[in-house]
Amino acid sequence: MRKDKQTRLPGNNQEKVVICANGRKVKRKLKDYEIDMGERGIYNTKNKLNDLTGKEWTFFINSVQVTDFAKNEEEFRLWKYLQESIIETKYPTDGKDSIGHNLRKLHPSPKPPQLMRDIIAFFTKSGGWILDPFMGVGGTLLGASLLENRNAVGIDLEKKYIEIYNKVCEQEHLKKQLAICEDSRNILKIEQIKNQKFDLILTDPPYANMLSRKRTGGDRKDKGSFTKDERDLGNLSYEQFLPEFREIIEKAVSLLKNKGYLVIFCKDIQPTNKYHNLLHADIVNEIRKIPNIYFKGYKIWYDKTINLYPYGYPFSYVSNQLHQFILIFRKEI
Ligand SMILES: C[S@@+](CC[C@H](N)C(=O)[O-])C[C@H]1O[C@@H](n2cnc3c(N)ncnc32)[C@H](O)[C@@H]1O
Question: In terms of Cα–Cα distance, which of 47, 34, 185 is closest to 123?
């Protein structure tokens, strides 16, 4: 069957060299709904999710987050080699690009704001709303402020983390997002947000008593816990943690728009003979119990700032787990 001719926007009629989603340059006419963004690639105006071009979109959906590129030929060859087995990212922990790491490091596990920024840029459009029910010193909120026109709300039990976040915003001259000191179990009772609808929930919760567990090998220092508060999910046993975490996420998800995304960071811990400790798989199973929330896949983030230790040497294999999972779910009603 012959398709009706589409009306074209002026200027889209001529063939030109454009950058396609796979990064290749091709000569073709633009469709009515396409805008040529030059080196950024082609933007499809039907894009309801974000403001990215096809090329930028393709880069993001790679399951491994790559941000560190080779600076010279030698590094390129090494990087190419590494790419076959491991892909790395290394966000600065000092200087201007560290975005207040001097203050944020007072928290046991701050997330790099640039990493959160890139996730927010994929899952929201300009004007979008982002929620983090376990904000810590505000990796998510800072990530939102690194983009134009995003609104974020964060919750944390610990007042001192919120104070640090506010100081970072002042030091870095970044927009202060709404940071609330509260137990996120009470999320639906918080006046400022109970009527807000969010485009994205992006969070990095504590995983039961993982921080204070006994460590092996070279990394013996006890990182303690996030807080001494018994309401802190980081002070629960793993068995208590899973359903309590799900209940909080279920409440948060009721504030998520239909087709909005839920993105959760998670790191596995060393397996024992009793249990595999694949936390990411347990979290997916637990979150799938929430009605209308569907698991869509994950990305892996390899944080190259973490030290390697010769765990197990010279007796047995003990894995160095330097990567974290970025679990991606969508609300579909
Ligand atoms: C892994 S940290 C988040 C770090 C954060 N992504 C950042 O960039 O700083 C988890 C946070 O959850 C907070 N938390 C634990 N239980 C909570 C609860 N019931 N309600 C609100 N916050 C809680 C802890 O105080 C801790 O700061």
Answer: 47
Place of tokens 């009306």: 7
What DSSP string describes 159-178? Answer: HHHHHHHHHHHHHHT----E
Instruction: State if residue 143 touches ligand 1 by the CB under 6 angstroms criterion.
Output: no
* Backbone phi and psi for residue 7, each to the nearest 5 degrees, phi listed first: -75, 135
pLDDT one-digit tens code per residue, 303-329? 777 776 777 787 887 777 778 999 999
| Residue 248, SS3 per DSSP | helix
Distance between CA atoms of residues 331 and 293, nearest Å = 5
**Alpha helices in 231-278, H assignment, sequence order:** 238-253
136 lines ligand 1 (CB under 6 A): yes
- Pocket test of ligand 1: the residue of 104, 140, 141, 156 to mutate, having most ligand atoms within 8 Å of its CB, is 156
Distance CA 156, CA 159 (A): 7
Question: Does the C-beta of 132 come closer than 6 Å to ligand 1?
Answer: no
% pLDDT > 90, the chain: 52
What's this model's pTM, rounded to 2 decimal places? 0.83
Q: Whole-angstrom distance between the N-terminal and C-terminal Cα of the chain?
A: 35
Spatial CA neighbour of 55 closest among 72, 41, 70, 36: 41
Instruction: Kindly report whether the peptide bond that precedes residue 314 is cis, defined as omega within 30 degrees of 0.
Output: yes
Instruction: Please list the alpha-helical segments (H only) found in the chain.
Output: 54-61, 73-83, 101-104, 113-123, 139-145, 159-172, 238-253, 279-287
Range with lowest mean pLDDT among 41-55, 62-76, 83-97: 62-76
For 265-313, how does the pLDDT look when each residue is reduced to its tens digit (9 = 90+)?
999 888 888 888 899 999 999 999 999 999 999 888 877 777 767 777 8
